[in-house]
Amino acid sequence: VNRLDKLLNSDLTPYTDNIIAEYIWIGGSGIDIRSKSRTISKPVQHPSELPKWNYDGSSTGQAPGEDSEVILYPQAIFKDPFRVGNNILVICDTYTPAGDPIPTNKRHRAAQIFSDPKVVSEIPWYGIEQEYTLLQNNVKWPLGWPVGGFPGPQGPYYCGIGAEKSFGRDISDAHYKACLYAGINISGTNGEVMPGQWEFQVGPSVGIEAGDHVWCARYLLE
Q: What is known about its subunit structure (predicted)?
């Protein structure tokens, strides 16, 4: 193990009370994920224990250059499977300095809906499927496809096993374990119809928790 790997895999718990909190939010396109790291003086159990933070929204397509500050509000925390120890991932949503949700902050309105007593009394359950396709390292072509060509007809690949049917299982399995470590309510995974295509499922989850868990799972996959 070289020095870099040793440092990356080290658990700092015996040496400091400080932890690393990775603040995660959705960028201006509505599908891109952004993050930045912050040192916190002690382990935390709830997002209310974390400070708000800020970033330059003009660089993420979420604010004009002349008034670019956007404020991050911590909303959900997960254990960090990359840094391990007491380090955490923090799902945030986004506000102006005046406290108004910015236009790309869809979580704010969702939280209002899910906190309505009528909605709470219904205990709304959600199960969400996320499909994705793995690409080869050096070319923008799906994993398991011949470069510039196409695989055989569909049929063998869906929930398939074996080297000629299941491409990228190590990535799928690593992501599965990372989600379980983080505390994400991932309920399963499987190979999909196309070679190099996979799916994972989150849920059943109640209310807004479903969205927080899916976005954290997407962060881990990326």
A: Homooctamer.
What percent of the chain stands above pLDDT 90? 92
DSSP 193: S
Query: Is residue 1 scored above 70 in pLDDT?
Result: no
- Calpha distance 68→51 (Å, rounded): 20
Q: Which fold has domain 3-119?
A: Ubiquitin-like (UB roll) (3.10.20)
CATH hierarchy code of domain 125-221: 3.30.590.10
- The mean per-residue pLDDT over the stretch 17-36 comes to 97
Return the residue matching tokens 């190590």.
170
Q: DSSP characters for 49-105?
A: GSPPEEEEGGGTTSS-GGG-EEEEEEEEEEE-TTT-TT-EEEEEEEE-TTSPBPTT-
